[in-house]
Amino acid sequence: MDSGAHPIRTASAPERARSLQPLLDAHGAEMDRRRELTHEVVDAIVEQDLLRLLMPRSLAGEEIGLLDYCKTTEALGWADASAAWFVNQSNVSSASSAASMPHEAAAAIFDGPRQGLAWGAKHGNSRAIRVDGGYRLTGRWSFASGGRHTKWLGAHSAVQNPDGTPHIRHGRPDDRSFLFPRAAARIIDDWYVLGLRGTGSDSYEVNDLFIPEAHAPARDAPEERRERGPIYPINSSLLYATGFCGVTLGIARRMLDTYLALARGRHSRASVNAMAVNHAIQREVAQLEAKLSSARAFLHEAASQLYEASAAGKMTLDLRMRLRLATTYGMNEATDVSIACYRGAGTTAILESAPFERRFRDAMSASQHLQAMLPMAEMVGRHLIGTDNTVQFV
Questions:
Q1: pLDDT single digits (tens) 294-322
Q2: What is the 3-state secondary structure (H, E, C) of 109-140?
Q3: What CATH homologous superfamily does 117-220 map to?
Q4: Domain range list for the chain
Q5: Largest CB tally within 10 Å, which of 13, 66, 273, 386?
Q6: What is the DSSP letter of 49?
Q7: Are 204 and 187 a contacting pair, CB within 8 Å?
Q8: Which is nearest to 196 in space by CA: 238, 160, 145?
């Protein structure tokens, strides 16, 4: 992605996201087939300046509040989950990196509205050896969502000293994110999956690649955070979780909207009554609406509370745990709604020509992400009880 002129923002981020819904609808099937976003969709995302939602204002970013961010990823997810997934992944990765890098280095990398960032999940099989002026990075990573559309990739690794021992910084093992041009990596085309196909989440590897010190932020280390806006003290894992929860709520809302439209005009052969006058279906759609709306309200409340506390310099572990619970709960509730709508639609739901099948696959794939795993809720439960706990991802 090449840099370009800065778009003029004339509407809120959620409004700009909603304006893309017809285009995303029209390109959804083709993006599934290609296993990547179309050029038209990428251009539209850039034109609406949706890759700098969380970027610091000092770098021409929008630095929006967390509640508006929830609403933006939800609006995109309503139309196309892969596009929404890319926007969330790139925003959190870019902003959390830029906030902890030297300003000049961040400005050089994130020099326009097209400069997204993609990377894979951290694991324990990589090496980042300290050398003069930076690091030598070796490893292979997977799930670089949107990496086919970004100039820059990144990777996470623990840092080792030249003798192989763990490097300690700020009194703890030194974990960093390493940014490098996509052209410096070997891309492995292995994204053949059930859903979220349009994310093009390839694997990639580098071997003994030199990374300058300025391109290796410790994103969640408060000692190295340069930006002081309220979004940046929030752990990057919670930011990812908030955005991905929004995506799953958007998928579920679209599934429920479509199910309601079907129920208004269809008579199932399995029932003597038309769907619209079937008491069981009437009860079901009301309960699904309550389930989805409750999960959304919990997410919005928890996100607003944490963001406001961060702005006041009063962010607590209790509030971080609350957002962790809201995001994990919300992703699971949204999944349940999507499943119920798919099943309720009967054989219509299995047709590629119908609006259920692709979104059901996207919902199932999103539900498998780390952020939705129920051990997250178990951690929150231990915190609420006050028993021994390993606090992570908050």
A1: 999 999 999 999 999 999 999 999 999 99
A2: HCCCCCCCEEECCCCCCCEEEEECCEEEEEEE
A3: Butyryl-CoA Dehydrogenase, subunit A, domain 2 (2.40.110.10)
A4: 13-109, 117-220, 236-385
A5: 66
A6: T
A7: yes
A8: 145
